[in-house]
């Protein structure tokens, strides 16, 4: 904020304007997961550890309005649990994701799990994988969203042929 001699990070950018929003000098820590990502042979119960954990189970980026973690989660089918911590006095934590493959066939090749906000790909206005209503003309002369030079955030996990996660990062 204006008038302070200490450097802070703002939770939201305010280019060209005075910073009057939540500030912090540290980021909230990443939530802990009791079960590593990868192949599961039977349903399991996942415990997340940390404070102010918000999560999704369908690939969307967790935000302040996402589910607040309050009890263990049952993994009864293959899914992606994405979490992010939100604590007073801290910037929101980094997003972390674990993909769980329940009763899936044995991998014979490496597997990639790519999770993203559904709207970024399939929404008529902002989706990059649809003809949509916000398209530009492309090389074939058709108007389509996929002709836009947009980029969309996603989360990338790479599993080796044994189902062990080797890479986990936002992209």
- The overall average pLDDT, rounded, is 90
Please tally the β strands and state the result: 16
Strand arrangement in the largest pleated sheet:
4-11-10-7-8
Largest sheet, described in full? 5 strands, mixed
Strand content: 25-35%
The stretches of 5 or more residues where confidence is low (pLDDT under 50) are: none
SSE class: mainly beta
Give the proportion of residues in helices: under 10%
End-to-end gap? 30 Å
The radius of gyration is 19 Å
Number of helices: 1
The global form is: flat
* Topology pattern, helix = H, strand = E: EEEEEEEEEEEEHEEEE
Your description of this structure?
With 171 residues, the chain is an all-beta fold. Helix content is 3%, strand content 33%. The protein has one helix and 16 strands. The chain has one helix at 118-122; strands spanning 9-10, 23-24, 32-33, 38-40, 44-46, 48-49, 53-56, 67-68, 73-75, 79-85, 96-102, 111-115, 136-137, 143-144, 155-159, 165-170. The strands form six sheets. Strands 4-11-10-7-8 form a five-stranded mixed β-sheet, with no helix packed on it. Strand 15 (155-159) and strand 16 (165-170) form a beta hairpin. The longest helix is centred in the last third of the chain and has 5 residues, at 118-122. It is flat and about 55 Å long. The protein starts with 8 loop residues before the first strand and ends with a strand.
